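User: Run a structure prediction on this.
Assistant: Running it now.
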Amino acid sequence: MTMAAGWAGSTFDGGAATPARHAISAHLESLGYLLFALFIFFTCFTFMKPSPYDFLAPPTILLWFLLDIRLYRATIIIVALLLIYLAAILVSLIPYLDEALPVEWTYQTVYLGITGIFFVMFFSDDTAKRVTFGLKAYLAGCLFAAICGILSYFDIIGEAILYKMDGRASGVFQDPNLLGSFLILSALYLIRGLLVGETRRVFLSVAALLVILACVFLSFSRGSWGACVIGIALTVGLTWATTPSRIVRRRIARLSALAMVVGALLIGGLLSVDSIAERFTDRAQVTKSYDEGETGRFGNQRRGIPMLIDRPLGFGPLRWRLVFDLDPHNTYIGGFANGGWIGGFAFLGIVLTTTFVGFRLCLQPSPYQGLSQVVFPALLMFFLQAFQIDIEKWRHVYMMLGMVWGLEAARLAWRAGRHDADAQLPGVS
């Protein structure tokens, strides 16, 4: 029972006001869902600082705390690791409190960590309903971002409004790598809905999927390409392996074969445009010039790791770039550089515990398995991308982290028989 519901159920005058209080409670919850939908939708607005996402965060979080979201025993470990990670960064900041950039970076990191804790608590109750609701709101944001990205690539509106970086689609993102990766979760959501036959509007879902995949391609992000392909393969494979229905397995096999053909045709059509083919040839390389050499990305990482072994507090927040003239472009190294040994090991703990929980969610039968097979593969791809890019400031990573641990809390509650599962397969309406 939520705080609002509990208040609505109490009476001071023999219960005459109870219906009115229930109505107020229902309106507050409706407002909470509206704010949450907007909060998730505006995750894609990174080109505005502060963005609508940042303005919506405080009232959304505050209202849901008033509605009595709770911390469950199953999620204590992830909340503790997040708090340790943030505390380590704050301690490492102390010598540099007079420097504006490290202070600002730390403030933003702590703020995002707090949103991560909120997401864990939010998704732990009414889990299937809330995760599905969040995925739909996120899908709306992804479609908006993908359309803007395609428009930016073809200069239909102009770079004065939308971003385009080095001939790559960016749209409402300042970084095409972030745009491409941002879209992966919604691609997996649409694909699984089509595979298991839960999508009610097949044509619209296919159209939305093609738009999203086209934008991922036009971002020309090597990391996003790889993450998208592996994420799709993982979602399809997990769905096929865990479904008990031969009919569904045959459907998955047929649709997967059809998707590969359509995907090849889509990519072939895009590559028929000379400018796209030229950009693809340039980007389809394992490494670029800025990756190589002693002062390149990987060279800096090789030189920096021995230095971090001698520095228990790391370099301090955002100070790797002062030593090497580049950010680490590796979130694992960044954890040790920004938060010292404690921060680095806490980040590793977040990744390892979440990966263990995520695979268990995907493989063990439960009413939450279907949703897990959408969310966890996408999050796992971000954990893999963290080896070659800095993801600690990506808002949607904290949302997916909250979804995975909320699903785990719901699964354990379902196993213990503490409530009836409200779960359903993640169909797309």
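Residues 242 and 363 are 7 Å apart (CA to CA).
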